[in-house]
Amino acid sequence: MNYSIIANNKIKDKVILYGIRRDMVEYYHFCRSYRKTASYFGVNVKTIIKWVRRYKKEGLEGFKDLLRKPKMVHNKVRNEVEELVVKLREQSHFGAKRLKMEFELPISYTRYKLPRYQITARNVRTGVLYYFYTYEKSVLATTMCMKRLLNHLFRYGIKPENITIQTDNGFEFSGIRMYHNRGFKKYLEKELKVRHRYIPPRCPNANADVETSHKIIEKEFYSIEHITSKKDFLEKSTTYQYYFNLMRKNSYKEWKTPVDILKEYNILPNIALLPPVIIDELYENIGQNDDSNLYSQVYHHDPEHPGNLIVVLRMEKVVEVNLGKQ
Question: Rounded mean pLDDT of 273-291?
């Protein structure tokens, strides 16, 4: 890769620009030399100094291009009002109009001990969707989900070098860590041998595929299904995921289902069948749950080269579900 072209703003892709700037600062933190870093990336020393200083001053936000907008924003709501709206939105997932009209706290999840978070992974090219659940927002949870998902993909002949995992900068993805000597990114790249990249902070459009899928799940599953137990929740989650991958046609993919697109790459449709689990419970007895046994079956299958499979990963709160009577 010609880093100098990217680093000097001759490429406009925000995700690529953010990634290379972050890589340069990470490398500097590793070698502690502006000159060695500049030589490695083929850029001017001043470029390295610029992004290191921006990072020290602004954190991850410093890797983004400066916004060309007025410093004074007229008619801006007070900070306390803005904070209240954000809090209500996080709790309810209501839209703007409904927030104006009414607000109700989310229903308690303690009744059936349902998980609070959904970890969603969606392949950009095919639209195949996978999701997992967890009780806690943590690096351990996201790492275990990736271990389960990637081993599943490897079984079907998808090679690690053809996979890129894209995430935001949340702490659950080790996004606040600059030098990755451990954590989520380290595990993906060193243990599972797949690439990983972060999107710029507050740039949700870069994860549009998974953002869209979460809204679809909320509308077509969480808001209409009645849940009577934890088992019922997982069974219905599995049914909806299989429907999404096998039968639901995507208007943005020429009205094809994810499985239709998989077949175009000579990839077995069963790759789309990985049932949702509560990852904490699956691995709570990790010594008794050996992945070598879990993934021992290997499919002797050679798919056509699908190019770089970008899997977008995101963790969201599970929205309100309808709890049925016991």
Answer: 70
Domain assignment present for 98: no
**How far is 314 from 167, CA to CA, in rounded Å?**
6
Domain with 235 in it: what CATH number?
Answer: 3.30.420.10
pTM for the full predicted model:
0.67
Compute the distance between CA of residue 278 and CA of residue 291 in angstroms, rounded to an integer: 16
Please count the other Cβ atoms lying within 10 Å of the Cβ belonging to residue 184: 26
* Greatest Cα pair distance in the chain: 67
Q: Tell me how far apart the terminal alpha carbons of the chain are, to the nearest angstrom.
A: 59
Domain range for 154: 117-323
Q: Check if the beta carbon of residue 120 is closer than 8 Å to that of residue 316.
A: yes
Whether residue 253 sits in one domain with residue 160: yes
Last residue of a domain, one of 26, 46, 63: 63
- Specify whether the CB–CB gap between 136 and 171 falls below 8 A: no
Q: How far apart are alpha carbons 245 and 120 in whole angstroms?
A: 14
Does residue 117 contact residue 134 with C-beta atoms inside 8 Å? yes
Measuring CA to CA, how many Å separate 324 from each of 156, 178, 217, 229? 38, 46, 19, 8
Do 46 and 133 belong together in one domain? no
Residue 237 covered by a domain? yes
Considering 63, 83, 98, which residue would you say is the last residue of a domain? 63
Separation of alpha carbons 320 and 214, rounded Å: 13
Angle, CA 196 vertex, CA 158 and CA 204 arms, to 5° = 110
Per-residue pLDDT tens digits for 219-276: 888 888 888 888 999 999 999 999 999 999 988 888 999 999 999 988 889 999 999 9
